[in-house]
Design a protein that fits this description.
Length: 356
């Protein structure tokens, strides 16, 4: 593990990387949101309008905006350019666990202890869907990168996948809205969002679920100390494997964007890296005193971040630059388990010796 940047602060509950700039937002249990430049190691800004812990935070992929959700039942959309909160979305009746912008549409998805997931249009500043069905706190809800799907995790021990294609069609062609009786919409949430799959298999509450960036896979982490891998197709979803190793509640789990690994962290004070092909624990990183709460993967670069009881770390799983040295017109370097030699004069590249 290659630590790039570390902060000391109150407990970090939410993290999000800026897609282009070397920035990371950390939302704290104290109610403050910090904006850090992890390359320079400096605190750029702080935002503290929430009352109580801020558990969810997310940068917009193209606009100068971020969204936050807190224990004050409020979702706030901020402009980091104007350095202020633009507006507040009200509707949840309990703590908000996660918030996330849609990669394409002007939507936000939020998960709450009021047992619902809400989808909001941040341009019209209104709630456009309430997803009901979980019967305990909803700990996490995320949009799919390309398909019209949402995945959610709840303390009711299930992971649910929701089909929101009806919502997209309605938003793209609003004339259809007139055909649906408004009363039915209000009473039953309309037919815009439906449960596609209910994934049952965890024995305790589920804290996190994530979609794979390209494959039809889901990973989840729960209070039964397990990380589970699920596969889905057009008609069903099923459990592929359970990854065991954590010795306390699994807080968060994500697929690595660049490597074939799953990264999870836990209240057992460890981050674990699982090899997806072998389905085995490849690496474990431990802290002395701090429980881990949240993970974030950079959308473009090979960077991860983890939030714990006394701050956060930005890190890489492995060094990307090879070990090398130059000597008498030759470059010696390590590549794919071989020590190789490149001759600058003849421009020949030869393997010298195999390294285990």
């Amino acid at each position: 593990m290659l630590t790039k940047f570390e902060t000391k602060s109150n407990r970090v509950k939410g993290l999000t990387f800026h897609p282009k700039r070397p920035w990371i937002l950390a939302s704290l249990h104290s109610g403050v949101i910090q904006l850090w430049d992890y390359r320079m190691g400096t605190l750029i800004d702080r935002f503290d309008e929430h009352e109580g812990p801020v558990r969810g935070v997310h940068f917009h992929s193209s606009q100068p905006l971020f969204v936050s959700g807190g224990d004050d039942y409020k979702i706030k959309v901020w402009s980091y350019k104007l350095r202020r909160c633009m507006f507040t979305l009200l509707g949840h009746l309990d703590y908000i666990r996660t918030v996330e912008f849609h990669p394409e549409y002007p939507w936000i998805v939020s998960a709450s202890d009021d047992q619902t997931i809400r989808i909001w249009n941040w341009q019209s500043r209104s709630s456009i869907a309430v997803l009901t069905g979980h019967n305990h706190y909803v700990m996490c809800a995320r949009f799919h990168h390309k398909d019209d799907l949402v995945v959610s995790a709840s303390l009711d021990q299930t992971v649910r996948v929701w089909d929101i294609s009806g919502l997209r069609r309605k938003s793209v062609s609003p004339a259809e809205e007139l055909r649906m009786p408004q009363m039915n919409n209000d009473l039953f949430g309309g037919g815009d969002t439906v449960v596609k799959y209910i994934l049952e298999g965890h024995d305790r509450g589920v804290n996190w679920a994530s979609f794979h960036p390209t494959l039809p896979l889901i990973v989840s982490g729960a209070d039964d100390r397990q990380v589970k891998l699920w596969r889905m197709n057009d008609t069903k979803a099923w459990e592929v494997d359970s990854l065991r190793g954590h010795v306390n509640n699994v807080s968060c789990v994500v697929f690595h964007a660049r490597q074939d690994v799953i990264v999870s962290n836990s209240e057992d004070k460890s981050i674990r890296v699982w090899d997806m092909s072998k389905r085995a624990d490849a690496q474990t990183f431990r802290r002395e005193h701090d429980r881990f709460w949240i993970l974030a993967a950079h959308p473009e670069v090979n960077l991860l971040a983890a939030g714990h009881d006394s701050g956060m770390i930005v890190f890489k799983l492995e060094r990307e630059r090879p070990a090398y040295t130059s000597h008498q017109g030759n470059l010696f370097y390590v590549k794919e388990r071989y020590l190789r030699c490149y001759d600058f004069q003849s421009q020949r590249d030869n393997p010298l010796v195999s390294i285990r």
